[in-house]
Prior knowledge:
The chain is an all-alpha fold. The protein contains eight helices and no strands. The chain has helices at residues 13-35, 43-54, 59-89, 93-117, 137-153, 156-175, 181-212, 218-233. Helix 5 (137-153) runs parallel beside helix 7. The radius of gyration is 21 Å and the shape is elongated.
Amino acid sequence: MIRVLHPRPQPGWQLVTPGVLLLCAFVVPGVMIMAGQGEPAFNRVDTGWQSYAFSLHSPFWDGVNVVLNWAGYAGMLFFHVVLAISLLIWQRPMAAIFAAASGISVLALTQLAKAVVGRERPEGAKVLTDTGSYPSGHVSATTAFLLVLALLIGRWWMALIAVIGMVAMMVSRTYLSAHWFSDVLGGACLAAGIVLLMWWRFRDICIKENELADGRTIWAVKASQRRQAAGQAK
């Protein structure tokens, strides 16, 4: 039987070092935004990218980005719940905890950062938005889910899909004028940093758990145990 999940062992420094650097890449712009009262040193890059995004507008891309607007937040939260439940069903409780803990941590820290930084969103957003522009909640949720999936599946093609998905969501949020360019970068850095550090703590037990799992659901295991118990009772 081909295993869908194949998490790979990695030296701790390959997770901790990029994880910490990514969190630094998230924190520094946030501090600059607060220090610059909403107009940080990189504001010219943000406005330049925003102008370019306006030039891409068309009815077709409007429709595509409406779908991405749903998928990037409510959709990703739903997918994260489905992933955690599926891992539980297929006898991988620690992987389920890793997935759930990563998603919840990213969601909580994203909302906290939005409240602390308090950056205003770009004008003319094409979708409904909440308060707080930095970091992007859609990008952080998408990055968290796709990176968790990539680490658990452990194959190059899933890593490629994850990168494409993250970039697509980053472009989408700026296309819809829901975020500045630095907001989407901050969301990706925050989520990726948290997930990598969480994986550093969970990877060994998840790898061992995956090796011991026999590919059956919890219901199949319980049914087998009942049959064995019935056979022994005869």
